[in-house]
Amino acid sequence: MRVSTSWMQQQSVGSMIERQGDLSNLNTQLSTGKRINQPSDDPVGAARALDYSHLTADTAQYQRNIGTANARLGLEDQSLANASGVLGRVRTLLLQAANGTQTDGTRGDIAAEMVQLRQQLLGQANSKDGQGDYIFAGNRTGAAPFASQNGVTYVGDDGQRMVAAGPGLQVATGDPGSAVFADIPTGNGTFAISAGAANTGSAVAGASSVSDPGANPSAWGGSYSIVFTAANAYEVRDGAGTVLDSGSYDATVGGSITFRGAQVAFSGQPDAGDSFALGASAKQDVFTTLDKIIATLRQPNGGGADMQNSLNTQFANLDQAIDNITRTRGMVGARMNALDQQSGLNDDLTLQYKSALSGVQDLNYYDAISQLTAQTTALQAAQQTFTRIQGSKLFDYLR
Prior knowledge:
There is one protein chain. This protein is an alpha+beta fold. It folds into three domains: 5-33 and 363-398; 56-185 and 319-349, CATH 1.20.1330.10; 191-281, no CATH class. The chain has eight helices and 14 strands. A five-stranded antiparallel beta sheet has the order 6-13-8-9-10. Strands 7-12-11 form a three-stranded antiparallel beta sheet. It has a two-stranded antiparallel ribbon with strand order 1-2. Helix 2 runs antiparallel to helix 3 (104-125). The longest helix has 57 residues, at 305-361. The relative contact order is 0.16. The model has no long low-confidence stretch (mean pLDDT 84). GO terms for molecular function: structural molecule activity. It holds the Pfam family Flagellin_N. It is found in: Bacterial flagellum; Secreted. Its main location: other. One of its GO terms (biological process) is bacterial-type flagellum-dependent cell motility.
């Protein structure tokens, strides 16, 4: 191997530059507190650190989504609580109106208050969130979901806005008004009963229920009627007029008529030919229920069996509306609980991701300071070596 003076100088300079580069990297690590400041420092570690950074950022976004969702669900729950309070007041007034001591005037006063309660309920159904979006409009949040003109019409859609609260977890941040205020089953939720328009007796249909759920599926494929063939006798007929059942009725004690899983309580004295129709529950919005109650209370010369039957029919529909809002509040509460639980899980995940990221890219100061001391010594040795070599010539060794 041929050794020259310039070669030795180049080697010394290269050694010093290499030591200075190592010191520069250590100084950067000590100033940033990170072992990896660029991918070339540790390509594998840099890739892992990038993955952990993305996971941490995703979890932070999930937490922001949860905060927004909780705020919106909280507003929905408050609106539903207000709506439930309004309907509770309507129910109280309806019980008062059904009292036999009421007059046309007092029932008119009750109807006037119900008109105001209806407007309050409409305001709750058209309530907004903090961003000005309508809570119960489905995905059409830019316009009021309930339009009031010749009755109340739902103009929103049936969609639900969802947010990502965690990996693979989507949570609804609201409920469409169609499900909350519009598509409410009539009657007891399985069947509804209404008095015949030509009834002349004082018989009143009261509470109804399903006494045998197992018999119900085959029973409600069509319409049925309870016909009083005499003041003390009745028949149950199907839509074709076929007699399915019959029995006796005592007006002095009243009682329930049961057939094919259905049970209906009666009171009062029927006349021969009086009838009550039974059919599968349909859908009716709560505003229609209120409108029918108000219209019934405003009828002149009220207080008879026909008014009582009409009020009882709408009373059952009102209870269905109240139950529907209560169920919706339960679902809202369940979502908020799920979001709170997921928020706790996200906090735990964030801590784990940050700990793993720290293990990959954070600097061990004790090792770094030890390396700094060693690298400083190595640089000083290289500098001293260069000082000795730069003044030397090959001919000095030939004297």
